[in-house]
Amino acid sequence: MLQWGWPRRWFVQRARLRPGAVADDWFVATLDYDGLCVTLQACMASARPAPRWVIHGTLGSYVAHEWDPQETQLKAGARPGEAGWGWLARPGELWLSPDGVTAPSVPQPVPGCAGDYRMFYAQLRDALAGRGDVPVSGAQIRQTMRALAMGCQDDASM
């Protein structure tokens, strides 16, 4: 939430779509900032996975198709630091429009970078030992918790 500050307005819709669902399994949240609109969504009842990230701008769009692979790699027995650790199997796609009007026809592949959750915990360790900054501030944690709590209310518009 702190990346762009607190949104001017937001609206959250939630639903239970699967038969017998005891918790919400679908949501869409729209966050309105000055000059920026962010849409977050998830659906546990989808037959086809949606892209992980879709970012649109006036001269193009970026699409990432995969989640961070580290958890799946750990479950499969891989260990941090091994060859291929944290790398996405499928590159993202950059769709560029030369003039902001003409639709791009062919995406350019954009390889990601290797993820490594250990860096966060190393920063936290160092901060607790007095050798660095805390990787996430208390203000960031409070704003995230506030957003989650507000999104869980029945009237989740602001």
Verbal overview:
By secondary structure, the chain is of the alpha+beta class. The protein contains three helices and seven strands; from the N terminus they run E-E-E-E-E-H-E-E-H-H. The chain has a domain at 51-114. 20% of the residues lie in helices and 26% in strands. Strands 4-5-6-7 form a four-stranded antiparallel beta sheet, with no helix packed on it. Strands 1-2-3 form a three-stranded antiparallel beta sheet, with no helix packed on it. A hairpin with a 2-residue loop joins strand 2 and strand 3 (36-43). The longest helix is centred in the last third of the chain and has 14 residues, at 138-151.
Strand content: 25-35%
The helix content, as a percent range, equals 10-25%
Largest beta sheet: strand ordering: 4-5-6-7
Please state the CA-atom Rg, rounded to the nearest Å: 19 Å
Which structural class do the helices and strands define?
A: alpha+beta
Mean pLDDT: 86
Q: Main beta sheet: strand number and arrangement?
A: 4 strands, antiparallel
Shape: globular
Distance between the termini: 15 Å
Strand runs, count: 7
Unreliable residue runs: none
Order of helices and strands: EEEEEHEEHH
Q: Give the count of helical stretches.
A: 3
Main attributes?
26% strand; 158 residues; four-stranded antiparallel sheet; alpha+beta; three-stranded antiparallel sheet; 20% helix
In short:
It comes from Tepidimonas taiwanensis. By secondary structure, the protein is of the alpha+beta class.
